[in-house]
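Retro notes (design track)

What went well: tokenization of the new backbones is finally stable.
What didn't: we kept losing track of which sequence belonged to which structure.
Fix going forward: every design gets posted as structure first, then sequence, in one message. First example under the new rule, 469 residues:
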């Protein structure tokens, strides 16, 4: 695939999915368009919003495990566009059970569609461009969402719904244009890239995302109603700080430490809740609070979208990893929604709302350092394994024997060492050698001790450094 083809395919992938995602933001996932339709018909939003988000979470967290290749992902996305279109049509008519059924079905299928895009991100965007692809996607889809929200506010919810539905066939056209098959990444030696376990880093990332997005749910249920009287301003300014934050982060050099930006985002959330507690409910107050909160959301969203994009290289199931990572975001919003509804129903003072939100921020601050360590270790392991895999097979044994351990390895430890260098996880090594994971961990500790290293990354780095002497 030449450079021009790569650029074109990346463009089609990002733009096509941006149309899908714009529909999701404008309507299905806490969309102002859905709220507008519910208000227009005098319907209470609690049940509908909860059903839509819960169904979306279920689709994100499960469907990705069924999508094993890009051709399946393509079929699911094309099928999903048509299915979601049909499931949304009942909203042109009076409220009925079809509304709930439509949200349930569209929410689940849209979750699977988002997970499926993990294959497209891995296949059509180079590793060093995934942060920018994620930023471009989020910026474009949010700009479309703002346009739909404005049209719904100035025209009618039904008119906004028509334009939002148009996104689905448009997105399908771009996905249809893309190749139906992708190439498996190969190392310089011609072998498939090694697969690395992402279980622990993904688990930590999901917990971090879940905790921080509880504040997003609180924002929907506490902030938005407080400024509901500023209809026109909220309809267009709502996502502007979010887009601005994405644009700024996208333009930063790739070497900038993204974890430090998270601390800035947390400071902005703290300031937003303090401002909500102390300020009034006029236009200026809304601009301050929304700028801080949505700017922080932009920082966080791009961080975990791009981290998930990097994790896709380490797994043969990118749809499952991508879907699970983003499902933590949706689950956090759902729990924050329920918490916000509870707070609203019992009329908690603004000061107590701020205390709850700040407590959540404190937990995420505690979690951030171990998360960052795990992500750095994951990336180092992958980098060194790729470098080792690029060496011709006949030279690898020579490299291993050249670096003498402090004590000789046992025959079993030599087997385990070779399996480590082939990119196998502890569980995979245990299965290949028909032993328990605890036994494998014991062998690995002994290997690290004999080579004077503490991790896979250090071990492979030592081997590669000795080769260059």
């Amino acid at each position: 695939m030449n450079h021009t083809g790569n650029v074109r395919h990346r463009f089609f992938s990002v733009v096509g999915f941006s149309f899908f995602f714009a529909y999701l933001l404008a309507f299905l996932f806490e969309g102002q368009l859905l709220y507008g339709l519910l208000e227009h018909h005098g319907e209470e939003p609690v049940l509908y919003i909860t059903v839509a988000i819960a169904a979306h979470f279920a689709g994100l967290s499960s469907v990705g495990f069924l999508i094993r290749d890009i051709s399946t992902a393509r079929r699911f996305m094309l099928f999903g566009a048509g299915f979601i279109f049909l499931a949304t049509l009942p909203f042109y008519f009076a409220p009925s059970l079809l509304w709930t059924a439509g949200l349930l079905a569209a929410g689940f299928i849209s979750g699977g569609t988002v997970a499926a895009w993990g294959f497209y991100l891995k296949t059509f965007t180079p590793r060093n461009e995934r942060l920018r692809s994620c930023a471009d996607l989020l910026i474009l889809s949010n700009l479309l969402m703002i346009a739909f929200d404005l049209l719904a506010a100035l025209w009618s919810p039904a008119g906004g719904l028509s334009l939002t539905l148009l996104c689905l066939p448009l997105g399908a056209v771009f996905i249809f244009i893309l190749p139906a098959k992708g190439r498996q990444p190969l190392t310089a030696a011609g072998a498939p890239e090694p697969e690395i376990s992402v279980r622990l880093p993904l688990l930590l990332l999901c917990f971090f995302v879940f905790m921080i997005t509880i504040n997003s749910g609180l924002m929907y249920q506490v902030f938005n109603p407080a400024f509901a009287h500023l209809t026109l301003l909220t309809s267009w300014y709502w996502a502007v700080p979010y887009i601005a934050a994405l644009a700024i982060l996208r333009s930063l050099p790739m070497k900038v430490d993204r974890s430090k930006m998270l601390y800035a985002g947390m400071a902005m959330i703290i300031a937003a809740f303090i401002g909500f507690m102390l300020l009034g409910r006029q236009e200026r107050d809304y601009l301050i609070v929304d700028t801080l909160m949505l700017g922080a959301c932009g920082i966080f969203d791009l961080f975990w979208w791009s981290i998930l994009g990097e994790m896709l290289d380490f797994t043969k199931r990118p749809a499952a990893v991508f879907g699970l990572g983003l499902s933590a975001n949706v689950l956090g919003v759902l729990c924050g929604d329920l918490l916000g509804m509870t707070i609203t129903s019992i009329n908690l003072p603004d000061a107590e709302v701020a205390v709850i939100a700040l407590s959540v921020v404190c937990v995420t601050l505690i979690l951030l350092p171990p998360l960052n360590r795990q992500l750095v270790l994951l990336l180092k392991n992958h980098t060194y394994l790729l470098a080792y895999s690029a060496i011709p097979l006949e030279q690898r044994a020579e490299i291993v024997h050249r670096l003498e351990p402090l004590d000789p390895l046992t025959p079993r430890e030599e087997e385990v060492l070779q399996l480590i260098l082939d990119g196998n996880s502890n569980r995979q090594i245990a299965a290949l050698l028909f032993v328990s994971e605890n036994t494998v961990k014991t062998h690995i500790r002994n290997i690290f001790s004999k080579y004077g290293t503490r991790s896979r990354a250090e071990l492979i780095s030592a081997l590669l450094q000795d080769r260059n002497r």
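Added context from the reviewer: Residues 391-467 form a domain with the Rossmann fold fold (CATH 3.40.50.2300).
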